[in-house]
Amino acid sequence: MKNFLKQAQQLQQKLLEQLRAIKVEGSAGGGMVRIEMDGEQNVLSVKIEPEILKEQDSAMLEDLIVAAFNDARRKILEKTQESLKSITGLPFPM
User: Which of 4, 8, 18, 20 is the most buried (most CB within 10 A)?
Assistant: First the structure.
C-alpha cells in the first residue's frame, strides 16, 4: 500500500510538471483578440489588435474576449487530456 501511494504521488507530480509546461493561445475574430494561458488556466497575456479598438464597439470586443478565452480553455483541456493519457495510458473524457 505504501508503494502504491508513493507511485500515486510521483504520478501527480509528473502531471503537475506537464500542466505547468502547457502554454496555449486562444483567438477570436480572425486573430484580432488573442489570449495566452498556461496549463493551470492562468491568463498570461491578452493581445487586442488596434484596428478593433477604432470601431468603438465595446459589446463586440467583450464577445471576442470571451470567445478567445473559451478557445484557450478548450485547448488547455485537450492538452491536459493528452498529458493524462500519455502518463497513465488511459483515455480521459473532457
Answer: 18
pTM, rounded to two decimals: 0.79
* Closest listed residue to residue 69, CA positions, set 25, 39, 30: 25
What is the rounded distance in angstroms from the CA atom of residue 57 to the CA atom of residue 62? 9
CA 19-87-94 angle, 5° bins: 65
**For the segment 16-71, what is each residue's pLDDT rounded down to a tens digit?**
888 888 999 999 999 999 999 999 899 999 999 999 888 888 999 999 999 999 99
**What CATH number is given for 21-88 in this structure?**
3.30.1310.10
Distance between CA 73 and CA 65 in Å, rounded? 12
List the chain domain ranges.
Answer: 21-88
